[in-house]
Amino acid sequence: MTTIAQVSDLHFGSEDPATTETLIHELNVAELDLVILSGDLTLAARHDEFERAREFIDRLKAPTLAVPGNHDVTPWNIPERLLHPWRRWRHYIAEDLEPAWFGPDVAVVGLNTARRMRLKLDWSHGSLSRGQIRTLDERFVVAPDGAFRIIVAHHPFLEEEGADLATRPKAIVQRAKKALKVFVDERVDLVTAGHLHRTYAAAFETAPATSAVVAEAGEAAHRVTVIQAGTALSSRTRGEANAFNLIEIADGRMEVRAVTWSGVKWARNPDPLVVIERPSSATK
Ligand SMILES: [Fe+2]
Ligand SMILES: [Fe+2]
């Protein structure tokens, strides 16, 4: 079995130290193969916040795969933001802004959706460039045959079904639709994201654009499931408990369930957010 935790929006700078200790313990006893950190590790990209994020990572037994969030680019030092937006991330977290991790039955690929600036007024929103979308196939070249394919990004790709868009800002990443179509072509199973501080799952399903992929996969349509994680530590919970997602993969089956903080302990939700089953013959 491969077990992965998706931990998002830690926001060091607004964390509760006692809850931080329980989260580190919870992640370490789970004997994880990988911890995904889907951005917003800090509140305002301050050095002391990055230091606490680094200490958190160093205390985890499992390897981590981290992509930046909009809060991880300094909002105070504008010259640094514009000229060297990833300097602090690279110093404290990782040199590679879009890392990948490959296990025997899963391929995990990171995409950086945070931006130093945008043409629109709100710089907290995310984007994917045409180049990031166009070269996605190269990122999966070394994925094992039949492996589940997971994308990690900070900004969301799909709204929650039935969400009341009038009551909160729309924060879907720019070029999400275009990217989702390429995710279908690349047989991506799961997209893990954060930013909204809300846990939910949503699905995008369509036929692949290239007939070769259809013939190879032996099916007309492919479903990409997006899972959003709540904030694991921040007090900015927007009405939901602190939470992270647990991804378990075994025997061609992937299950994702939320693990929520009750104020006393972390509890696994008995009902999975999503179950994805892979026919044993399916390979890319
Ligand atoms: Fe956040
Ligand atoms: Fe964010």
UniProtKB/TrEMBL annotation:
Provide the leader sequence positions: none
The keyword Metal-binding appears for this protein: yes
Q: Which InterPro entries match?
A: Calcineurin-like_PHP, CNP_phosphodiesterase-III, Metallo-depent_PP-like
A GO molecular function annotation here is: hydrolase activity
- The Calcineurin-like phosphoesterase domain sits at 3-198
* Annotated keywords: Hydrolase, Iron, Metal-binding
Q: Which family does it belong to?
A: Belongs to the cyclic nucleotide phosphodiesterase class-III family.
Protein's name in the database:
Metallophosphoesterase
Origin organism is Acuticoccus sediminis
